[in-house]
Amino acid sequence: MDIGILVIGDELTSGMTLDTNSSFIARESQMQGWHVSSVMTVGDDGDAIKGGLDYLLGISDALVVTGGLGPTADDITTAAVAGAFGLDSYIDEAVLKQLKERFGRFGLPWTKNNVKQAMFPEGADIIANPVGTACGFLIERNGRPVIVIPGVPVEARRMFTGGVIPLFRERFTCREHVAKRTIKTFGRTESQIDQILSHEDLEIPGITIGFYPRFPEIRLVVTSRDEDSERAEENLRVVCERIEGRLHGHIFGYDDDTMEGVTASFLTDRKLTLSVAESCTGGLITDRLTDVPGSSVFLERGVVTYSNTSKVELLGVPASVIEKRGAVSEEVAILMAEGVKKLAGTDIGLSTTGIAGPTGGTEEKPVGTVFIALATEEGTTCRRFLFRWDRRRIKEISSQIALNMLRRFLVKEMD
Amino acid sequence: MDIGILVIGDELTSGMTLDTNSSFIARESQMQGWHVSSVMTVGDDGDAIKGGLDYLLGISDALVVTGGLGPTADDITTAAVAGAFGLDSYIDEAVLKQLKERFGRFGLPWTKNNVKQAMFPEGADIIANPVGTACGFLIERNGRPVIVIPGVPVEARRMFTGGVIPLFRERFTCREHVAKRTIKTFGRTESQIDQILSHEDLEIPGITIGFYPRFPEIRLVVTSRDEDSERAEENLRVVCERIEGRLHGHIFGYDDDTMEGVTASFLTDRKLTLSVAESCTGGLITDRLTDVPGSSVFLERGVVTYSNTSKVELLGVPASVIEKRGAVSEEVAILMAEGVKKLAGTDIGLSTTGIAGPTGGTEEKPVGTVFIALATEEGTTCRRFLFRWDRRRIKEISSQIALNMLRRFLVKEMD
After folding, report:
1. Count of Cβ atoms closer than 10 Å to residue A322 Cβ
2. What is the set of domains in chain A, with CATH numbers?
3. Distance separating the N- and C-terminal Cα atoms of chain B
4. Which of A20, A211, A313 sits opposite B72 (nearest CB)?
5. Shortest CA distance to A340 belongs to which of B343, B306, B336, B298?
6. Backbone phi, psi, residue A40, to 5°
7. How many angstroms separate the CA of residue A153 from the nearest CA in chain B?
8. Helices B46-59 & A46-59, crossing angle to 10 degrees?
9. Residue A255 and which of A112, A140, B43, B324 are 20 to 30 A apart at CA?
10. DSSP summary character for residue B124
11. Interface pTM, i.e. ipTM
């Protein structure tokens, strides 16, 4: 089933308000196995609304319309929908009575413009609003249901899940079952992953694989559709297994997992403690780790050693090494990781030092040069990177790589 | 001038990703005095793209198309636009050469599918992408410009303001001049600000004031329109001055200012040095400060003292005080700020300690209890807060208040 979504409001076409309703409706529709043909946003304008309704009805089996059902002068959706379909409007006395009672109950003065919220196109079925004053309605157009609900996000969400989904399910028996999994990867570019996954054995009917880069990660969403729910699940399982086989090590989590959350779980499970010494990442690594509830169990301390003095005092890095090799160097990164590990008395020490820019680069060490070191009982490893991008992104990718080095060490530990 | 916006991507029609580009483009268009006729979102599907292009061209003077210009199989926008307009595509050798050079420079392996990013419909004018690999292009359709740009938000934004706006301005002369200023506030609620600003002397023809809460800040956007550009600027200046008179102290910056950027400038200008001791904010304060280029001038060190031991070792907080008062207490917050200031030898010390939750609260100190202390040459101040909200938001508002305490101390210093 194809669903069209029409979103109405001058606040949206002027960019004053960000529309989040259509994304919610699209997500919920997909979970029902329905396909969204198009989302259209228009202002509070009769002609634009009529144009949108006609276009979307031409490419959809059902329509959801949100917004413009309030009492003010710019709320014209009911009249515009009635007009577009050549229908008169009427005042529903039962709704009007309820509205007046509601105003009285909350001690609000009744103003005439509220009558508008009791008006509906003739022949419409009224849909109750459990969380607000404006009711929705359902109207047929050439045998296709058009459902109109308010635009206030909390009302639109409640009415879509509680009102629209049951109505659509009743009419459109859905033969398709949908199973879905998000695979979160790091360390390969979109085109590399695309090539790795260009394989006939992933081309299973009903399976689609979408790519969603969210810097610095790339997410793969595997969707499996089948009339038989068990087969949908089974196909999903098989495809995910094949993808895992090819991207192994670059997959850090699934669905709602985060890099910091996964790493934190490994540390907690293994009862290992961590300390962090950050220079160029400026505290972002510990900020991310401390977003995870319970991180105090494994995180002993973090230090943001921005000055050379602090590297000497808080980490025991010899001033002579900093002078000879530079604060941004493999030697200093290693001594930082080992120093924080030793002084904090933790199982693991993690460090970053680099030039996040925009100034401070040299020919030998240009802006974007970053060293990341991991010190464990097994020894210390250090990697050198050169990033393009701006200061914030250099911090973000450096923190991601640092956490990923730690994660990969812990995964190996877990095996 | 009417602008149509076509947004392309399965991640949008499936509700996986929230489209923020069209809202940005709509807002910027409005600032230019242009009107957005409609925003349409379709999936990566040739027919849907063709349908959207045809519909929007019927109701608009110009089109902006975003998304689907990447290297993977589902990126079909260029081919779909060419197909919709009955055009062939060609490989632009100059763009291809630049792409390959770019890959080489960053040590990325060149894969065949990247050739797609050098393909354009015949007759298209190529628009450079200053922040990514996918170029945009301009093509004419019945005398109407259709501009296609990538969907990656940072690229879409840069290319819209830097590429599309100048191109459209050249073609469409606009009679209205628009002047705009964003006023950034912290410390008052939206309804408090609304009341403070409900004044006749702000009701000037052509002036609109919009409220945009962006946790934990509230931004006011003052827009001034007039046919005469000087009058537009003058009206803007007068209104902003009146707002400043009423919100003084709660305004921390304008337009692109950030709380951390403003605070960093004050520190740099005054040649004052800072050290930070964070417990519940977990490194977020130094993360924000180190987003500012040049922060190494004033930031000596940060410490994330998550364990009691680290508070003793890195800050000199006596273990007996922690035991007696608790790690989350006014006494410990003050000793942390004073300790880091003394040990780092800086002019100012800033500290946070609190219970970010979801567990760890007590009756006396429930989840959300946070102490923030500022130690300067003039003495130490400490404030206690109780926040509702989740762990991340408690961290965010605590870091904001800490920076704001520092900013207000420095502003006073500046007077």
Report:
1. 20
2. 2-171 (3.40.980.10), 177-254 (3.30.70.2860), 259-414 (3.90.950.20)
3. 47
4. A211
5. B306
6. -125, 135
7. 14
8. 160
9. B43
10. P
11. 0.78
Q: Which amino acid is at A347?
A: D
Instruction: Give the number of other Cβ atoms within 10 Å of residue A57's Cβ.
Output: 19
Q: Looking at chain B, which residue has its C-alpha nearest residue A388?
A: B106
Q: How far apart are CA B238 and CA B244, in angstroms?
A: 10
Of B328, B338, B412, B400, the C-alpha closest to B373 is: B338
CA distance B289 to B304: 14
Q: State how far the Cα of B22 lies from the Cα of B65, in Å rounded to an integer.
A: 9
In order of A219, B60, B386, the CA distances from B305 in angstroms are 34, 58, 21
Smallest CA–CA distance from B109 into chain A, residue:
A192
The answer to whether B374 touches B261, Cβ cutoff 8 Å, is no
Both tokens assigned to B335:
């000793």
- Note whether A230 and A238 are within 8 A (CB): no
- Nearest-CB residue to A190 (from B28, B43, B71): B71
Give the DSSP letter of residue A180: E
**Between chains, do A287 and B291 touch, taking CB under 8 Å as contact?**
no
Distance CA B16, CA A182 (A): 10
Give the single-character DSSP code of A297.
Answer: G
* CB proximity A392 to B under 8 Å: yes
Half-sphere exposure of A282 (CA within 13 A, CB side): 25
Residues B401, B386: Cα–Cα separation, whole Å: 12
Which residues of chain B are within 8 Å of residue A36 when distances are taken between CB atoms? Answer: 13-15, 43
Residues 246..275 of A with a Cβ closer than 8 Å to B: which? Answer: none
Contacts of B15-18 with C-beta under 8 Å, sequence gap 24+, read B15/A22, B15/A23, B15/A24, B15/A25, B15/A26, B15/A27, B15/A28, B15/A29, B15/A30, B15/A36, B16/A27, B16/A210, B16/A212, B16/A221, B17/A23, B17/A212, B18/A18, B18/A20, B18/A23
pTM for the model: 0.78
Flag if A301 and B310 touch (Cβ within 8 Å): yes
Residue-by-residue pLDDT tens, chain A, 415 positions: 899 999 999 989 988 889 999 999 999 998 888 899 999 999 999 999 999 999 999 999 999 999 999 887 778 999 999 999 999 999 999 999 998 998 888 777 788 888 889 999 998 999 999 888 889 999 999 889 999 999 989 899 999 999 999 999 888 766 678 888 999 999 998 888 988 888 889 989 999 888 778 889 999 989 898 989 899 999 999 999 999 999 988 999 999 999 999 999 999 999 999 999 999 999 999 999 999 999 999 999 999 999 999 999 999 999 999 999 999 999 999 999 999 999 999 999 999 999 998 998 999 999 999 999 999 999 999 999 999 889 999 999 999 999 999 999 999 865 5
- CA distance linking residue A57 with residue A219, whole number of Å: 33
Among the listed residues A221, A217, A222, A220, the one whose alpha carbon sits nearest the alpha carbon of residue A188: A217
Residues 271-330 of A with CB under 8 A from B: 276, 278, 280-287, 289-291, 293-296, 299-307, 309-310, 313-314
Distance from CA of B337 to the nearest CA of A (A): 15
What residues contact A269, with CB distance under 8 A and at least 6 apart?
A: A414
Q: How many CB pairs under 8 A join A and B?
A: 258
